[in-house]
Amino acid sequence: MTIPAGGIGMHLYTMRDVLAEDYPGTLTRLADIGYRTVGVSGRFGHSADKIRSFADEAGLGIVLEHVKYDRMADDWAGALTDARTLGAQWVVVPSIPSEQHSVDGFRAAAAAFTEAGKAARDAGLKLLFHNHGHDFATVDGTVLFDILLGVDPDLLGFELDLYWVVNGGKDPVDYFRGHPGRFPALHVKDMAEDGSWEDVGAGTLDFAAMFAYAADGGVEQWLVEHDQPADAWRSAERSYRGLSELRF
């Protein structure tokens, strides 16, 4: 089995340096490589309308946008409007503030996600949370990430970052199997031998073993990401090949 072509995307944080120089040209080149979708992370001075037009011209679908945690309280209605303008189906909070990395802090985040998730649902969208490694810390006997799994699945899903799950000492398969349907989007980010980031397929993570259970997890989008590529275009091309040629 292989990943459906329409499910292979690029999370645009990877391309931030070249996006800052030429946003529409970057999207066109990604489409030429073979990517079909993108996740937006940073506007670089462009409006949601303009970014949507760039994506449309390139033939790319925008599936999600990352929105800072604080915006849930400050301008959530605006964030949802922008996501709809982009044509996204998910709005993603990429991290919880460091001062909330406690059981009480994650419980407060769960409450905030519940309310934000209701507004997203009313707007025809779905709220997702993107994890980092520290979200899997055990505090007072509780895995912090697991607190968020207690939020109503209709109101909160997850953009599971596979690198950070493993970095946090957990196995993505356990989450796919234990919480079916909660993970519609993935960040597919590989791990080098030294624990740093690597292009997809060139590192140590066993994506085939993970993706064998992707259907259980409800995965619809596999979004490539590399946090610090030495050459963004070389990384984008290698990762596309690594992901599109994967068998599982």
Characterise this structure.
The protein is α/β, with parallel strands linked by helices. It has a single domain, classed as Alpha-Beta Barrel (TIM Barrel), CATH 3.20.20. The chain is 42% helix and 18% strand. It is built from twelve helices and twelve strands. The chain has helices at residues 16-21, 23-33, 48-58, 71-74, 76-86, 103-122, 144-148, 162-167, 172-178, 207-211, 214-217, 232-244, and strands spanning 8-11, 37-40, 61-66, 90-93, 126-130, 138-139, 142-143, 157-161, 185-188, 190-191, 197-198, 221-224. The strands form three sheets. An eight-stranded parallel barrel has the order 1-2-3-4-5-8-9-12, surrounded by four helices. A hairpin with a 2-residue loop joins β6 (138-139) and β7. α2 (23-33) runs parallel beside α3 and α3 packs parallel to α5 (76-86). The longest helix has 20 residues, at 103-122. The N and C termini lie close together (5 Å). The relative contact order is 0.15. The mean pLDDT is 98. InterPro entries: IolE/XylAMocC-like, Xyl_isomerase-like_sf, Xyl_isomerase-like_TIM-brl. This is Sugar phosphate isomerase/epimerase. GO terms for molecular function: isomerase activity. Keywords: Isomerase. Residues 29-229 form the Xylose isomerase-like TIM barrel domain.
